[in-house]
What does this fold into?
Amino acid sequence: MDEGRKIRVLVAKPGLDGHDRGAKVIARALRDAGMEVIYTGLRQTPEQIVAAAIQEDVDVVALSSLSGAHGYLFPKVAKLLKERGIDDVLVIGGGVIPEDDFPELKAAGIAEVFTPGTSTAEVIDYIREHIKR
Amino acid sequence: MALEDIVRRALAREVRAVSRLISIIEDRLEGFERAYAEIYPHTGRAHIIGITGPPGSGKSTLVDKLAMEYRKRGLTVGVVAVDPTSPFSGGALLGDRLRMQRHVLDDGVFIRSMGTRGRLGGLSRATSGAVDVLDAAGYDVVLIETVGVGQSEVEIASLADTVVLIQVPGLGDDIQVIKAGIMEIGDLFVVNKKDRPGVERVMAEIRTALELSEMSCVEGSWVPPILLTMAETGEGVAEVVDACGEHLKHLGEEGLAERRLRRARAETMEIASQRIWQGLSERPGASEEAQRLAEAVAARKADPYSAAAALYRLLVQ
Ligand SMILES: Nc1nc2c(ncn2[C@@H]2O[C@H](COP(=O)(O)OP(=O)(O)OP(=O)(O)O)[C@@H](O)[C@H]2O)c(=O)[nH]1
Ligand SMILES: [Mg+2]
It folds into this structure.
């Protein structure tokens, strides 16, 4: 916990639904795993999420959604990052997401998708193993 | 991007480069000292304002509204928001940005969250680095938010040109700044949450404490104004911006130079002492010697002062 690099994660909640309990649980778990977690709050547009990720120079963008909006909003975030030439940020998603949607999300640049059944430990391990710098 | 490119682009206020450079300095990555040397000649132009106060007093909400007001006046704004790093996990929840997200698509505002990362000295050295990057990048005003829990106020005072101390009604009997004995570092007092009961009392307490402090007796010296705000609605925020400007004007060239000399001295000494410590720990046998001396002190065979002197001799011999 001294000097040197720390994994920085932006936890964001695109879409219109008004709950962020899931996002807060994961934010705390990542904090307890020694990461720096920037939480941007509810109802963020993909543009806002990407701009915040750039200013905060994060390693990971963790997206959470309950509303079923993931199908459009998650890929949009990945696309905006790509458009800006940012290829060293890991984008992951979580929430109530049907397994049928996984392939499409992954093809769109979401590295991994976690459902409510996933333990926070799995998410932490995944991030540690897959960050790109 | 190569380091030279990052520096060049950061100086041209390219957001990604600014952001990367802050990380390079914060993480002390390869070449960070070289990068610092290149940006440093471009610093010294921004008005650096520290905003501190108890947890939950409305610092982030006020910073958000201050940024709005500065933007209205045509100025660009950098924000460094510092939250404590957990001493147990080394992680941090950085939540200040939450209240400032409205600015995220405005390229005249740059917001960066930071953990204290448990470095010696509380307020992280990296904060100073981020402030310098934003200053060099040409942001007109740099706002630093830190939670006020004693030591960090004193450090913010050495970093900022103007220090805003926030208080709120209803926190208990004595207001915290008086208890901590740090009234002197406030250039401006803001009593936020004026919609809450007890505002008059907080103002009276600050006024009394200010009258008692010796500063206010010296002729021509700055008398810290006490301002009332409701950060949530933005009420009173324009007055805070005005007062920060007046404070800068009152400092004048000489006063500003004096503050900045104080900051330069504190930082240089801190970095130097870190290097000395590092130099010591790199000496062959030093850590064994430190261990041996610690055991001797614990066993009451040596006292801590002579043990420290022995360690120091190891360095200078
Ligand atoms: N009633 C009232 N509430 C306010 C006012 N300004 C801010 N708040 C509320 O106070 C709470 C804390 O505000 P923040 O801006 O997060 O406070 P902070 O000092 O940055 O908090 P930390 O960074 O966690 O120490 C929020 O719920 C705000 O909405 C105000 O003028 N009046
Ligand atoms: Mg805050």
